[in-house]
Amino acid sequence: MTMEGTITSGVHRLPLRVYYEDTDFSGNVYHANYLKFCERGRSDFLRVLGIDQNAMIGGDTALMFVVRRMLCDFLRPARFDDLLVVETTPGEMAGARFELAQRVLRGEEVLFTAGVTVALIDGVGRPKRVPPEMLNAFRKAAR
Amino acid sequence: MTMEGTITSGVHRLPLRVYYEDTDFSGNVYHANYLKFCERGRSDFLRVLGIDQNAMIGGDTALMFVVRRMLCDFLRPARFDDLLVVETTPGEMAGARFELAQRVLRGEEVLFTAGVTVALIDGVGRPKRVPPEMLNAFRKAAR
Amino acid sequence: MTMEGTITSGVHRLPLRVYYEDTDFSGNVYHANYLKFCERGRSDFLRVLGIDQNAMIGGDTALMFVVRRMLCDFLRPARFDDLLVVETTPGEMAGARFELAQRVLRGEEVLFTAGVTVALIDGVGRPKRVPPEMLNAFRKAAR
Amino acid sequence: MTMEGTITSGVHRLPLRVYYEDTDFSGNVYHANYLKFCERGRSDFLRVLGIDQNAMIGGDTALMFVVRRMLCDFLRPARFDDLLVVETTPGEMAGARFELAQRVLRGEEVLFTAGVTVALIDGVGRPKRVPPEMLNAFRKAAR
Q: Do D3 and B15 lie within an 8 Å CB cutoff?
């Protein structure tokens, strides 16, 4: 099963369907739901890299990714029943932070773009350096 | 502030507004969101009774209410901008379980009804008897 | 792509992943979200049957399925990262209404069951008989 | 009832409660839900100004506000049961677009800030100038 998407040339692509729950009475996808789609993309990007978020959180030194900043451009509306793709492209990493570029597409059409700053924190919210094995996984993916 | 609603003759009433996020492309409130409205009603019913869910969960003997069963009747659609009221009426209590009747109204119109069975569980999911002080709070409210 | 699931022996099965958005601070899937999962199952069941909800809604005689009643049993909690399957089994049909049995499973474990009554309505909310071609599609699936 | 908040010195303030539905298994409010909170703030800001979104959408010349861009900073986590305030401060208006600054606070603590660009569109998605009576309402509020 490739529900979790695939990485090609350093870009993770996750297919997803627009359901009733994603729309609002304007007929289009509710704006905040693009952020959900992007979070699914990031979670499955980590999954494909072999990074187990559940193990990270439950481990001795609980680690969790949190979104610090997100610049969202809502370009064109997605609609009920659309088949979309979420693209996740890792960018710069420095200390406890890294950048990702994300897009939501319907075929060739770009509907939504986001620049995302993610931080790694421990169980009490302190920023933590990205561990070397995680860094390596990101770097391999970026090639 | 009476954001958390009021209890009159044993019935808790919570006002709430329908926002974009609550609707779907049919133009009506998305069906699963009535369950969210009911959960807000139950949470604020406990709040008005002086039961602090946060303290319960964080305490030595973590206690949490979970929904076991819900019979939902979707009678008439709510729409964007509607001002609704969630009514919560406590019913029978026995051991770790109790029953609630809930309704969502727009003025006099009943839009949604639910019969809800809630259980009290501890941190590892085992059913726990409702503590006497909680029982007393429920009984006072029912008068 | 089999994102929309498959029908085997009259039962539609849709795989889905539990993301951050589906959980609440109890650590488990938020109860109302099982209804979203079931709605995805019903939508993709129609899709696999070749019934185009978008065309139905947009056509001259707008037709839409709405949930009238749902009896929900929350048996065991699903958790972050779980891979779930939504099973949809069509039941009795009579006039404008039909019954469906739905379950959410993690492997062999049944986490959630629902008995769902769905009605077909037109653009102004009046009940409409299920058209013969739709009935045929359901009957073929049930075999 | 002041459920819809109040405007003081040009800033609209809307109180809201964090419920189960708003949190995720990290224990904090799910990041995309701050956008829902902000949308509630904008809707109720319009309501307090006397602008009826429902009438706008349903009228001869359907008009709707859509978010074009949003720069979101997630500063500190909100948690279950928190009582929050959404602040909405209107900014520049030019043609079909205007800017808003929004913040989510818990007491004095700023948890989330957003710079929001909203556009007014008609029923087929074309940008429309903000009508003079709406402009006047905004300007009065800003004083």
A: yes
D44 is catalytic: no
CB-count burial class (<10 Å; 0-12, 13-18, 19+) for C80: buried
How does the average pLDDT of chain B come out, rounded? 92
Q: Where are the domains of chain B?
A: 6-141
Q: Which residues lie across from C15 on neighbouring strands? A: C85
Short-list A41, A39, A59, CA closest to A133: A59
Superfamily classification of domain D6-141:
Hotdog Thioesterase (3.10.129.10)
Q: What is the DSSP track for C57-107?
A: HHSSS-EEEEEEEEEEEE-S--BTT-EEEEEEEEEEEETTEEEEEEEEEET
- Sequence-distant (6+) residues with CB within 8 A of C41 are C5, C12, C14, C86, C87, C88, C102
**Best to test chain D binding among B40, B48, B85 (most D CBs inside 10 Å):** B40
pLDDT 10s per residue in chain D (143 long)?
489 999 999 999 999 999 999 999 999 999 999 999 999 999 999 999 999 988 888 766 788 999 999 999 999 999 999 999 999 999 988 888 999 999 999 999 999 999 999 999 998 889 999 888 888 888 888 77
Of the candidates A1, A19, A39, which has its C-beta nearest C40's C-beta?
A19
- ipTM for the predicted complex: 0.95
